[in-house]
Amino acid sequence: MPNKALLRLERSKGRLGFGRSRMLALAVLASMTLIFVGSHHAFGFVSGPNSKDGQTGVPSTALESRRSLLVSTGLVATAPALPAQADETYKDNGLGVQFRYPNGLQKSNNKVFNVFFRDIVEPLESLGLKVTPTKRKSLEEIGDAMAVGKKLVADTIPTGAPNEIITAKSKEDALGRRYDIIEFRYQWYFEEELARQLGRQRFQLHQKALIQIYNKKQYLLLVSIEEPRWEIKSDQMLQAIDTWKLI
């Protein structure tokens, strides 16, 4: 979908370097026929499990239009829980990674991610792995977890999109190698035709990323879920991060 909107999203110099494109979020959305359009407007975040006190939610009409769409297709985003699903193991000796993921996801080709899984019903629900060469020896060269999180957000969301870093934590694997887990969310716009189908123009994407540098490679594992479904699907989707392993 080459156009001026996409050209504006090319990655500038000095970024964290998660790929040739400025934003990996583009890969999540472009693969589902979405494009970032419109101008920036300030609007409140939908309340989520980690919401801060005092934040303003989007108008209830936006959530009701989503509810109507899901009810008409037999899906309800506000269900208290989903049935337990079996999971699959993804293992790639070439990339040197292993993790588990819900078997309801469909593996898809993607130009930005090395490995990409998406939900066939929910267009913004996905799991992507991006492995890139790097001259950095560790995340310490970037800074603490919050510094890594700020660079990640700067590299992966549309310019001007309202955003929030929810948590940024550093951990170590069994061999003492640092990895960071960054949870954040942002809001943007659907492509015009899809907006008409959904009955709304904007979406709020809740994401959680694992970032690790090892052996001249930078690993990014990115989980994406639309905000109203975060509490429902996060436990299933985040098993990829929980079971992450370098092999």
Report on the structure:
This protein has seven helices and ten strands. The N and C termini lie far apart (36 Å). With 247 residues, the chain is an alpha+beta fold. Strand 1 (87-92) and strand 2 form a beta hairpin.
Share of helix, binned = 10-25%
Largest sheet: 7 strands, antiparallel
| Beta-strand share of residues | 25-35%
What gyration radius follows from the Cα positions, in whole Å?
A: 18 Å
Distance between the termini: 36 Å
Determine the number of helices (DSSP H or I, runs of at least 4 residues): 7
| Biggest sheet, spatial arrangement of strands | 3-4-5-9-8-7-6
Kindly name the structural category. Answer: alpha+beta
**Poorly predicted runs:** 1-14, 19-23, 30-80
Query: What sequence of helices (H) and strands (E) makes up the elements?
Result: HHHEEEEEHEEHEEHHE
Q: pLDDT average, as an integer?
A: 77
Q: What is the number of E strands?
A: 10
Q: Which geometry do the CA atoms define?
A: globular
Offer a quick outline of the entry.
The chain is an alpha+beta fold and 247 residues long. It has helices at 4-7, 25-30, 60-72, 145-156, 192-198, 230-237, 239-242, and strands spanning 87-92, 97-102, 106-107, 115-118, 126-133, 163-172, 178-189, 202-214, 217-226, 245-246.
